[in-house]
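Hey, I'm writing a tutorial for new members on how sequence and structure tokens pair up, and I'd like a real worked example in the thread rather than a made-up one. If someone can provide the structure for the chain below, I'll link this post from the tutorial.
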Amino acid sequence: MAGAYDDRNGVIWLDGEMVNWRDANVHILTHAMHYASSVFEGERAYNGKIFKSRLHSERLLKSGEYLDMPIPWTVDQIEAAKVETLKANNLTDAYVRVLAWRGAGLDMGVAAARNPVRMAVAVWEWGNYYGDAKYQGAKLDISKWRRPDPATIPCFAKASGLYMICTMSKHAAEAKGCSDAMMYDYRGYVAEATGANIFFVKDGAVHTPLPDAFLNGITRQTVIELLKARGIEVIERHIQAHELTGFEQCWLTGTAAEVTPVGQIGDYTFEVGDLVRSISEEYEALVRA
């Protein structure tokens, strides 16, 4: 499958029905298009099985709760929809996108309680998110935008509106020849990349930002489990900007990114070392087990 995302062969699960890919559309007055009332999950299927699928479905419902947008499907129904969509598109290794949003309805203003909540599941083949950087080490810019204060926005939801500053940051990074951008949080602590969590290595220990102002990714949690199972110390804490100069290795984690080493952030450089390579290999083996 290739080409523009609105012009492909296949089917998309839309509100309980399989719809031709090119016909899976919404009305221009859909609330989510005007007020960002939408949440989503990004997942990967390996050998026909979606990795930690149920955790993603549970998080989708929780994200809907954060946005005061109750999603009218159960975890079991979402699970069934994902399986059905993979089978209908004859895919076993694929990216899985589940999206829930406020549709068009009786309300067309900030308030939208009377509008229906809709859901779709789309699947497609998607290779390495960062291309060759998956093996060589990604180059990151440092974004001018910061992850917001949890008192200003539901930052623990996987909500579409939270990604606008990420899009802007990634565009700026790509214009500089970088794969992505690292973001600080509202206090100036290291937070994450635009769509992935971040890890650092120093003196045999792994340091990663405390997820108190951004999403605690499922891949992030999985990698922490792998590290601890090896007996490697994992320190979750606030990391200040000046500390970047003292770290030896760095990597990103996420469903799309999987485990991707980082070779450079701004003027700071990192070794693509044995630990990040072995964790990447171990993660790859786990998701395909």
